[in-house]
Amino acid sequence: MITRRAFLDQAVRGSAVLALTPVLGQHLLAEKKGQRGPATRIMRLDGDWLFGGNFDAAAMAPGFNDGGFMRVDLPHCVTPLSWQDWKPESWEKVWMYRRHFRLPKEFRGLRVFLQFDGVMVGATPHVNGHAMAAHLGGYLPFEYEIGSALQGENVLAVEVDSRWSDVPPEGSAKGPVRVDYLEPGGIYRPVRLKAVPHVFIRDVFAKPVQVLDASRRVDVICTLDADPAPNGKVEVEAALEDGGRVLARTRQAVQLGEAGKTEVKLSLAGLGNVELWDVDHPRLYEMITTLLVDGRPVHDYRVRFGFRDARFEMNGFYLNGRRLQIFGLNRHQYYPYVGGAMPARVQRKDAEILRHEMNCNMVRCSHYPQSEDFLDACDELGMMVWEETPGWGYLGDAPWKELLVRDVGEMIVRDRNHPSIVIWGVRANESANDVELYRRTTALAKSLDDSRPDSGSMTPGSRKNWKETWHEDVFAYDDYHSEPDGTVGIEEPVEGVPYFLTEAVGQFSYPEHKGFHNIYRRGGDLGIQVQQAIWHAQAHSRAANNPRICGVIAWCGFEYPSLVNPYRAVKYPGVCDLFRIPKLGSTFYRAQGDPQDGAAIEPNFYWDFGAQSPHGPGKHVAIFSTCDRLEIFVDGKAHATLEPDTANYAHLKHAPFFTDLEFADARPEVLRIDGYARGKLVLTRSFSADHSRDRFECEADDAEIAGDGSDATRVVCRVVDHFGANRAFGEGTVQFELKGPGVVVGDNPLNLTEAGGAAAVWIKGVAGKAGTIRVTARHSTLGVQTIEVRAGRPALTIDFN
Fold first, then answer.
1. Which domain holds residue 768?
2. Is 73 helix (H, G, I), strand (E, B) or coil?
3. What SS3 class is residue 518?
4. What is each CA distance from 160 to 95, 214, 663, in whole angstroms?
5. What is the distance between the alpha carbons of residues 578 and 575, in angstroms, rounded to a whole number?
6. Phi-psi region of 356 (alpha: psi -120 to 50; beta: other; left: phi over 0)
7. In this structure, is residue 622 part of a structural domain?
8. Is residue 597 part of a domain?
9. What is the pLDDT of residues 433-453, one digit of tens each?
10. In a domain, 338, yes or no
11. How large is the average pLDDT for residues 747-761?
């Protein structure tokens, strides 16, 4: 499998190692030696920004005195946030950023583009006082050709409009309460300069064809951009590579009669020996496309992709010819403290949690295109992806719909080389049927990528007349109904089309409950917390009982900020909290892995005798496990022998176990669970009810980060029993002291009581500084923990070919 760091330029996708060097105060990137043609020159503009707060038109002029501005690095959020109580009025303003840079000499004579990966929600850049066209929309990249505006010393000023705007998913007159996620403003994804020759390769789509046949091939659809068109003989070469080894190559002559864009199609056949990308074997390859003029390579473009066949059929979902039950969760990209403004490492961590800790084989990017760093990780980890256009239940006027169509096209062009993406969502989430609009988005999707099906999540209201008004490939339904007994209900699939569930369980349907906005909160009602995992297990098992249902992507992976039925501006349907720390709801998912990867025992309760559980966990409590037998011991005495409940959960990979752990007249101290597989003891877990031995635990995700001002790692703080299990309703505050080249991103002090005993901050490096970051975390009653994170300096080498 090819592994790589995420490239900063959309046009340079592959496994080439990027090198960093300070060049006149900037970071300039180039690819390693040995390429066929000149690399695209990339200059990162993530560091050394000046942020001036509320907008002043005078600040767009190059000579403006910005000495009083605050120095910031990207990704950046315009306003400080906690992890709850977010207030849209704090960011719904127009803001200003400035960036000084010197154009590297290696960029001279080339076409230069300014590229933004994402600005929330609108941006108008000014280059040396020249205003660029305003861009509206927060989830997809945009660029400007700026060579004519550049000089030796340059000022980039950006007007960032974070007000509620007429752009998907926004637009409703009701404002932020109309969309079930909040969108803090800022330049929250990377920015760069890209320099290319006057004729260059703008885009490449490597599309595998007839993947399950020995005659499989890959069609290479290449877009050339010329200004002006070259005089010599123009050719395009495509080479399929595996770790630098060429597996196949073809070359084709191209006629470029005039300036502008030209599409070229090449095919590489005879690829019967390539390995397929699969959830258990995510095999990746590179396609290197080279532009030659008179036999001389002038530009190349690398994409990473995989060969796989994904089909939604009437009797289920098939990956590479075998039926695979979809087992997944939805994901929002928003984080505590900074909204969406987290760097690549943190975005990738979400994919690792969902794939390896939650055992998901699919994730839905709800409800917008998400960071390519996240998608890169899904490619590498073997996690399938549903990606959808920005939207949430609302359809605006004609200009709004034009932006929706634009977003569908730009999403597909950006992401169609990711093998993890198996379906496109071309409808605004849970929106009403609009026949004309969705015929346009479906046709556009097919024109840009006919190798994947399309769909869009439907609700009961839009399902009623679906035969007349629906025309996508796969019927995706958000099923939130319950049976009369309060258990999860699963609707019968609609007739005649592939069918699966894009949402289930959620937050507020099982049952209707006073204060339902508080459901599943770690610091909330314990009786409701323990129901979450049971309802998720019911949803997956009952859906799998019907072979017509391809599977379930349940709601949802992580908590998220919202004003729709919130508790202190946070929604709590995540099986992990906003800090990405697993809750009781995750116990089901954590025990659905392959036992060969390690046994799991996950009690769906706290071993505690507190105010909400004075007699212990209770009757008929669940334990999720990959084992086939559990032995339960209470204070060393045998209590029960358990077998999985396959009668009621017949269609799960691992059915739950149930036992009685209610103690009316005693308060035992230690619970021990021994797990057996095929008669052999494979795992033992113990839990303590003795609060006097509780301790404070603090752990970082990573031992090292880059000292670039952007990279960061999470530090999780928890109150645990003396065996290391989360303590129910752990209390106290944590004060952080930091020494070394880093900063704390988060609340300081951090209130664990409000978070239910577990929370996190992030540690970020300082641009250009290397060394050891020493973090001392002092709990108000349980002592001190110290962690160290190394901030590494970027490599100081550069090559230009």
1. 693-792
2. coil
3. helix
4. 5, 52, 59
5. 10
6. alpha
7. no
8. no
9. 999 999 999 999 999 999 999
10. yes
11. 97
